[in-house]
Design brief:
The complex is a heterotrimer of chains A (338), B (307) and C (331). Chain A has 338 residues and is an alpha/beta fold. Helices cover 34% and strands 22% of the residues of chain A. In chain A, strand 9 and strand 10 form a beta hairpin. The chains are: A alpha/beta (338), B mainly alpha (307), C alpha/beta (331). Chain B: InterPro entries: BP-dependent_transpt_permease, MetI-like, MetI-like_sf, OppC_N.
Chain lengths: 338, 307, 331
Amino acid sequence: MSALLEVSDLVVDFPTAADGVFHAVDSVSFTVSAGERVGIVGESGSGKSLTSQALMRLVPEPGTVSSGSVLFEGADVMAFSAKKLQKWRGSQTAMVFQDPMSSLNPLMRIGRQITESLQKHLGLSKAESRTRAIELLQRVGIPDAESRLSDFPGAFSGGMRQRVCIAIATACSPKLIIADEPTTALDVTVQAQVLDLLDHMATELNTGVILISHDLGVISSFCDRILVMYAGRIVEEGTAEQIVGDPQHPYTKALLSSILRLSEPIPRRLKPISGAPPLAGQRASGCSFAPRCALAIDACRTLDPALVPASNASPGQRVACGVAAPAAFELADEVTAA
Amino acid sequence: MSEAVPAAAAVDPLALGDKPVRAREVLRSLKKDPAALASIVVLLALAVIALAAPLLSPHDPLQTFPDIGLGPQGQPLPPGTPGFLLGTDALGRDVLSRLIYGAQVSLVIGIVANGLATAFGVLVGIVAGYFGGVVEAILMRITDVVISFPILLLCTALIAVTTRSTFNVIIVIALIYWTTLARIIRSMVVSLKEREFVVASQTLGLSHRSIMWRHILPHLVPAIIVYTTLGVASSILIESALSFLGIGVPIPQPSWGQMISDGSTYFQIAPWMLFIPGICLILTVMAFNLVGDWLSDMLNSQTPLAR
Amino acid sequence: MSTVLLEVDDLEVTFRRSAGPGRRAASVPAVRGVSFQLEAGTTLGIAGESGSGKSTIARTLMGINKPSGGSMRLNGADVGALRGRELAQYRQTMQMIFQDPYDSLDPRMKVSETLLEAIKLRKNKPASPLNEVYQLLEKVGLSKSFASRRPRELSGGQRQRVSIARALCVDPRLILCDEAVSALDVSVRAQVLNLLKDLQEDLGLAYLFISHDLSTLRFMADYVGIMYLGKIVELGTRDEIFERPQHPYTRALLSAVPEPVVIDRTVRLPRVRLTGEPPSSTNPPTGCSFHPRCPLAQEICRTTAPARRVTSSGQLAACHFAEPELVVAEA
């Protein structure tokens, strides 16, 4: 299976107040295959959204992608010219954001917003693009699609707007959809509908999907593979079953045990992770999770563990923890030595 | 639950001053803005000149020199004449001395008038915005009425019915300029009072007065500073315009507007009488505007990754 | 039976929405005839989607919104009849914790200033207010050193702890938590929930816990009310609501929650998937508000609003079909 998207050693830097540099995203590598659903889960400040922005080359000022490569079907995205980048963003990839209201132009009719990119990227005529727009709206489950083309975004409810966004995102049949907290602003019953829709689109078009969320429930019910991010790094990677069923990293474990589930007996007290995620620019040396980790040993405070195959020998599961997988420290040593 | 990524330079007036401004940051931001730095120097110099007017001015600004201050045909002397660095005016008074004392008048009027306008505008804006409803409707309709008058016409009328004095000029300018700030402050308060920390203090049972005073006003201070600085420039301009129309500061007291007005009469034979106060006025107004812009930029800018 | 602390009867809150671009002025019934009781020391959870009116109930209890009908009785006294100082005193029996930890503290004030301001409102002022501040901080699990910090130096969880401390300043009996943990990171959320539970045990507090997150409610609440479009459609004990839900909306809500559990992907769980979205409260549907989305809707649902009644499993539900037969039929 050849990779659709190949991200390696991606680093996103932000200047700090003290004239230093802070790696908001730190050596992140992963791949997405066609039709694969990859989830990135993490808390605030984990760098999950920045990762997706970086691979679209949309890192907000004053951040910069300081190193790493992003290959899309073998082509180096970081080397794209402005024109090529624009074309690529519009036709090959698409983003769906958390707030559907702010990603739609409130003063432009829905029809125009959909047909615009169809005409621009696919070279369709006015009439063709209109027909296509109606099809798209029908496909995302908007009733009465033809008459709604002339509505402004304000006339749609939150869930309907997110459907419109998905219609726009899938207008040019992109090969990759990046959805950043697409359901966080939505009600739970509507969230289920939108996730079903994304699922359906991905299956139908064989689109690769990167779903970004803070909600492990959403991620694990939707994704094939999960990347767990903490403080700018991927700390664990595996299939949904591996991550939820047999987590290896202490952070993943702690996260899962601090979550309430309707399907389990009510605990008397929750088992929280002590402390809080590190603030931007205030990460500890060594493993960033060490200050909150119950299993931390001395080495954790000095060595930065690498992402290595997990010691439970589960295929594809990788973990960045020297305690769970001693190889992580061995690799870390080499890095420091070099 | 969003990422701790700075929003791309979103300017939120309410985010102003949520963090204390440090002297180091002020200096750093000044270094990046040489125009503002120059403006501050100009304004400081102006303030010093205005305060030290009696020491600095070579002559009494009101004294006429019919013999040495006028040419053979009774014409004003050009700049560079010995004893009269910037020349004399039509009555043989020293332009430099009048300019120096004029700065005093312009600054005093600009600052006092605008200070009064600020105080009143802030009061009206806070009360209207906080209480809303009928109170707001009444206060803001009054504001609308005042705003809809043509400013100069209103000034002219107001001063025509009173006597011509510096005090009246100040009052008139203040009466007109509070409206802008009242509107700005009101709209800020309307959104501030929905903020959870304000609602929280209401639910605790704090009095309205202490909520307005302790939880709302402090958040308005940076905006007030910015708009006041910009307002001083307008006030100085208005004073000049009034003096130019002959209804400003009473003669023979020197004011820049008065000097420009005189200068325009003698423009053909003594252009310096117009240009010298004119340039001073432009510089001062521009300096206030540049400082105002800089203040608003600086107070608005948020350091990256502030969380 | 313990004492009833709060009694809300047939509460109605209607907002007047002024005309704006593309919309007419309208009256929006946000809360439509809500009744419940809350006993001292217990937690009533209220769940519902956005726009269901759950936050409006809390804001009306706190006096931020005005009720347009019904009554609220706190310790037996009619809150609507109280005025001035008496009202202010009474209101301190109830305090509120807000959703947004980044907005609920005055960013210009130190933690100690925020707390001292609230402590000063107490009827009998403590001898050493600063000591009181330290004690409060300790109660919410923060060290003394936090007193001199400003909100921007605190994490979301720490801010929410300070908010809790501020609410405790006036010695309330009831705390309204409006989505109090929703904005917190998962790992931090658990800490705050534990803290709230501990405080309840130590101080005998009652909570009105409002959340859209059902699993959080299940952990916190003794009683649960499910709101839909301004009405409580189902009200019962935690077990009744979560183990034997009667209202089709409650069931749909429960089955829509995605859970991080290992799922056998070949066998999809029979889920009650709702179609459509909550209708606007400006113009609620006729009959039962839920009927346009309800998988069980019949003719009667379109014409007649169901009354709330006790179902066979014990809780109150407002559904024409909330009967034991239904459960059997579906199983």
